[in-house]
């Protein structure tokens, strides 16, 4: 049976300068969903600090999901033999992939496949992901290569994650995309799916647990986003207050329940 939750379908209008689609209806405190579809970059960032990966998996419980394409991407990196990783610049990422494969194997992370009915959305979603990435590249002094195997793989994971989320919402459930990628968040928004990033997840942890210091969460955020899964600059917290639970009474988060960030 699907758990009840808020209707997460966002309204379509977003400020045009936004690099990351933040749903104003989602509060600091985590709201339960049927499924939270995590993409590769966000999972690698969390796995870079295993303590936070564990806390995240505990907080989201059996709603933590990945699309089939994301699972394949993680397993492909984990399958690179350790002695071949240095020359392919996969030492850090490989260690993260190994940790995530453990969670896939013990089914802490559920793998979900997009429905056949969602196939019509593949082309528009991939086209939008490509366009947003091209626009982002043009804002930086960087060369744009129209054919890029890494990007195509990443887009396959993001596309499948958005498809699974729309399947769940169409079936009457609630689903969010967990991604640090601004383009993926904006594309998901167009399809009626809200996105959350690492900053949101760490702030949710601050509300859910009393053993975390906001300064430590800020440090962890910067450490986890230094190598991969780096969100757009407008997501970066100015200071540790981004990770402050404003609960005034034990167990109550009235202010966090009202504040969208
Ligand atoms: Zn709180």
Please give a structural write-up:
- With 261 residues, the chain is of the alpha/beta class.
- The chain has helices at residues 40-47, 50-60, 68-78, 91-105, 122-139, 149-170, 182-190, 198-208, 214-224, 254-258, and strands at 35-38, 64-67, 110-112, 175-178, 194-196.
- It has a single domain (35-258), classed as 3-Layer(aba) Sandwich (Rossmann fold).
- It has ten helices and five strands.
- Strands 3-2-1-4-5 form a five-stranded parallel beta sheet.
- Strand 4, helix 7 (182-190) and strand 5 form a beta-alpha-beta unit.
- Residues 1-6 have low confidence and may be disordered.
Task: Name the descriptors.
single chain; about 260 residues; alpha/beta; Rossmann fold; 5-stranded parallel beta sheet; disordered N terminus
**What do the pLDDT scores average to?**
89
Number of strands: 5
Model regions low in confidence, pLDDT < 50 over at least 5 residues: 1-6
Helix/strand order, N-terminal first: EHHEHHEHHEHEHHH
Class by helix and strand content?
Answer: alpha/beta
- Beginning-to-end CA distance, first to last residue: 31 Å
- Provide the CATH superfamily: 5'-nuclease
Q: What small molecules does this complex bind?
A: zinc ion
Q: How many distinct domains?
A: 1
What is the CATH C level class, in words?
Answer: Alpha Beta
What is the molecular shape?
globular
CATH architectural arrangement: 3-Layer(aba) Sandwich
Figure out the total of helices: 10
